[in-house]
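Project standup — Tuesday

K.O.: blocked on the structure for the chain from last sprint. Re-posting the sequence here as requested.
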Amino acid sequence: MTSKKETLTKGRIIAHHGLKVLIDIGSEIVDWKPPRRETWVVGDIVRFKEGRPSIEKRRNALKRAGYKGAEQILAANLDQLIITASCGEAFRLGLIDRFIVVANHEGIEPVIVLNKTDLDDSEEKIEIVERYARLGYGVFCLSAKTGEGLNRLAGSLNGKIASMVGHSGVGKTSIINMLAPGLERATAKIHEKTGQGRHTTSSAMLVKLPTGGKIIDSPGIRHFIPSGLTPADIAENFPGFNQMYGQCKFRDCKHLTEPKCAILTAVEENELDRDLYDSYKRLLESLEEN
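H.V.: unblocked you, prediction finished:
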């Protein structure tokens, strides 16, 4: 380490590549190997004291159940979670609901982005995601190919740190490349420093946007099961359930077969979309299986 690095006080992790992380300290970007048995992720704040680094307490974290149920932290200290879906084969409704649950539980603002609205089936998918707007969530319909709708999304990110998540193939990196022209040049410099290959979204990286704000480009996720949440946590944070939460006869109601359940009544009376409720049941099943 140089004397300059030894006198550092604070920085933010902006990339994680193998055994190394890159820390933005304002004047430059430095690389560091995290201590053994510690999990450092993009978004973490690193404080240096007498040349020794430590992670500050996270105000929130995006977590999922990984291999054999082990907790995997994907990002930390977020203002927004940009949940990305797309028209076409990569559209997965249940994944949106699961990310919303975790975002709500962690105090992160969930935002839904529907990409590839230039495709033929866009009207049907737009109609589906618009229900989240009716539930009070921000919804952005756009096309990374044509650029339509990107300015509105960029404006919502100003002054915030966000993570863009979603299934592989929804076009997350294409959207970020449009929001941050020159990203390929920036990532090439980073990989020269780490000795890793070119950026293919196999690792997370925090990108500064010219319009303001920062966004984490993360690998695509095939499966997402929230980590550390109970069935009660799932119900309390599930989209569409909040207006009826606490109105069931039983305090520990799981909203499955219990009598006088406010959620089941809302589904029967078409006040709550049945496919939303079915998504809730699948999430509970995944939680139990895991």
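K.O.: great, moving the ticket to review. Residues 3-55 form a domain with the OB fold (Dihydrolipoamide Acetyltransferase, E2P) fold (CATH 2.40.50). DSSP finds nine helices and 13 strands in the chain.
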